Amino acid sequence: MLHRIRCVPCVLVPVLLFAIGCGTGDKDVSDSATASIDLVERLDAGEVRAGRVTDERALFGGISAEGRIGDFKIYNAHAQFIIQAPGDSNYYVGYGGSVIDADTVRPDGQMGRDLIDDGSMMVGLGRMFEAERVRVINDGLDGTAAIVRAVGSVAPLTILTGTLEADGLIEARSATVTIDYILRPDSRLLELASTVEWHSEATPVQLADMIFYSGEVAGRYGDTVGRDGDAPTSYRWTAAVGDHNDGVVAIMQGPGRDAFEANSILELVGDFGPLLVGSNGTITLNPGDTVRWSRFWGVGRDIATLVDEWLQRNDQTTEAFEGRVVAGEAPVAGARVHALNADGEPISMAVTDDDGRYRMTLAADEAASLIAESRGTGIHFDIPSGAGWYGAYASEAIRSATLQSIEDGASPVAHSPGYGLSAVVDAASPATLELTPPGQLNVTIADGGPAVVRIGFADGDPMDAPLSVAHRRPKGEAAWAYIADGEMSVPLEPGAYRVVIHRGTTHEAVVADVTIASNESAAVRADLIPSVDTTGFRSMDPHSHASPSGDGRIHMEGRLLVTAAHGVDIHVGTDHDHVVDYGVLLHPLGLTDRLATIIADEVSPTLRGHHNAYPLESAPDEPNGGAFRWWKSWRDWSNTTGFHTWARRMRSDGDIILQANHPTGSSGLFGNAGYDPVAGTIAKGSHWSTDFDALEVLNDGSYSRVFPYYLDLLNRGLNPTPVGVSDSHGHHEGMGVNRTWAPMALERIQDLSNDHVRDAILRSGTVASFGPLVVPTVDGAWAAGNTFTGPVNLTVEVRAPSWMTVDEIHVYENGLETQTIVVTGPKTVVVLDPSVDSVYVLTVTGADDMAPVYPDERPWALVQALFIDVDGDGWTPPLPSLEAP
What we know:
Blueprint: E1 3-6, H1 31-35, E2 48-52, E3 72-76, E4 79-83, E5 99-104, E6 116-123, E7 127-138, E8 146-156, H2 158-164, E9 175-183, E10 189-198, E11 203-205, E12 207-213, E13 218-222, E14 226-227, E15 234-235, E16 237-242, E17 248-253, E18 260-261, H3 264-267, E19 275-279, E20 283-285, E21 289-300, H4 303-313, E22 318-327, E23 330-331, E24 336-340, E25 346-351, E26 357-363, E27 369-374, E28 379-381, H5 396-408, E29 420-421, E30 425-426, E31 431-435, E32 439-445, E33 451-457, E34 479-483, E35 487-492, E36 495-502, E37 510-516, E38 521-526, E39 537-544, H6 556-565, E40 570-573, H7 586-589, E41 596-599, E42 601-603, E43 611-614, H8 630-633, H9 640-647, E44 657-660, H10 669-673, E45 675-676, E46 681-682, E47 694-699, H11 707-715, E48 721-725, E49 738-743, H12 754-764, E50 767-770, E51 773-778, E52 781-782, E53 787-789, E54 792-799, E55 808-813, E56 816-822, E57 827-832, E58 838-845, E59 860-869
Parallel strand pairs: 22-31, 28-34, 32-38, 39-40, 40-41, 44-47, 47-48, 53-59
Antiparallel strand pairs: 1-21, 2-3, 3-4, 4-5, 6-12, 7-8, 8-9, 9-10, 10-21, 11-20, 12-19, 13-14, 13-16, 15-18, 16-17, 17-21, 22-23, 22-26, 24-25, 24-27, 27-29, 27-30, 32-35, 33-34, 33-36, 36-37, 39-49, 42-43, 43-44, 45-46, 49-50, 50-59, 51-52, 51-54, 54-57, 55-56, 55-58, 58-59
């Protein structure tokens, strides 16, 4: 139950809430006093500290780290948390006073592993806590709990109001909110003790906590549902678990409280990114009411560590389980042991130490069985052991240390992929659980360059792994590996596999059948022969995502490795509403002579359509790297033309390209404006604008919906540059096979400039490709995007590796297909001889799929429109302009 007090200015509350009282216990340490506290020193058992950060060395890293000097740190020998000072912040919540970083206290030489993107308390749907002041109440020097207090009010979750452009979505209310962050010595649970004093009319609310976590390196693990299961009707805790045993962050209900309740409306906020929610039932607050709520945010090596302490704090009768996980006679470090109840539902999970030992404490008579698993994610990146995950918003010192670790490695976290699953055994203590040692696949690339390694089961997955405890196999394959420098070793469960090694659409592939035995190695050497002449051309993928995107499912390092492994030349970092420089990662990853990267932003207002803006310059000290935060400024522009104008105000060294993304979908420009290409009309004029430069005609293999719109735009005198993109949010999803080709006079990729990209998109003419490189020429000169006088003989050359077959060329004149030409050789002459001014679009297609590299996918490509001005008096479009109200 939540404690609600009516019209009482000061009351006695349980000792755990002593810090919220009116006067007593509130010693309010001054800023000058807290500034003198050493927050860098490593604490011993029994010690705890809180203070304001004045030294970057007090901060810790991780993929989501964003703590800075001026924020507040509270920590002990085991756990550490950063509470943001009042003011603007990164990500989407945007209010200070909440926990923004959390991690275990790690041994020297091990990189930080913060998993919290954003977190806050909510007082009713979309009504967030906004701190007006944060201060230290107790610094911990007296040996008691350290306390940091944040006091403020409630403010709207602007990403909700901005997305729907509706202030009325969240009704304004007045309340005073106080949150005391309380950390005991040796505790891994940070208590959040909140008081809400209600000043408005009677209002039903749910008090809830929400944490956006780093879904690119972690997955949700819930009480009784395990990995990534749907939230149950009620639950006691919910957690995010690092995929590589990076650690755990959890929301756990407070002592004496009813269980959290599933909140389907709040879960919808998870559309903006992976979300942990701890939500209470609905109560009605009346004027003068005061309500109190205490709960925990915990960090630990595993869930069992947190559940153990949580049960103690709840005074529950418990039962301890311990034992070992072995493979043969050898201990397995970093294996996971899951405790299951009588219904087979996961209720806790422990990670084994270096000796293979595990320990967990559960409520008495709760556990029925145990299972050990150590399959891993099945996705492997050529990054040194122990390297940290790069966080774009971490302090400069943290970013520098992380880059060094990516180059040289660091002290690793125990993690043992490839060991499979044990048998399910009855819960007992001690219990020994048996796994099978993996074998190794050693891959060598002859030219020492990057490559994709896809490892498939020869006869299907032999292991029936419950998804509640083990990662599902990636894209149905046994494993994927992304090589940076020509060599890599991949652990695999014993069995038979088919291995495909490739470098995307410009090289031949190597296929090998291998058998992997336990504790043995198999080797494959691949000579990836270039089979497409790309001289004078460069390819780019101007739409892909990684960790800065709330819905990214791959870290920044992985995104660059995957792009390079597929042979794409230019990565464009189009993360949702973040401006991030990936370029600092190229040298540590060893990719400087293989890949270039462009700073960009996917500006993502649903009602105006998602648009990529590039090239940009990042501003690491500004929220979201200087991104255009449309959800805060939407009242300042009344239509999509205004939105486009504001988007072009981001930092750049020249003109900004605006690219209309997936334009016909629910978050696309055309869909929201009600563009009808048959009638040539726009239904909602305020949602329409022609101020975009490029158009995604190809998005992750899909082109049929957008293609008619591209033809209609051309017929009406508009000429956006067509691009092909992957729009990938993970390691797969069309990477490499979707790309944009353009002529580019650039011998060394490390010499790429923003102007090269501007020229390619705005002036050079492109090919949006799902497979082949198409080279259209007139009299030997590049023809795409150009205007000609009189009839022309267009030579179309299709360049593709042997595993890709292109059968036909389709010629569209003024929007209608007028020729279908069978491809009989590498070059085909197409005669374009109209009687009136005309616009031509060419596509190429293939009937066979692109196995073994891209199985079940068929080649397609589009050449940017060519215009023929019959009389040389200026080209006239065949249709009138679009009609917009």
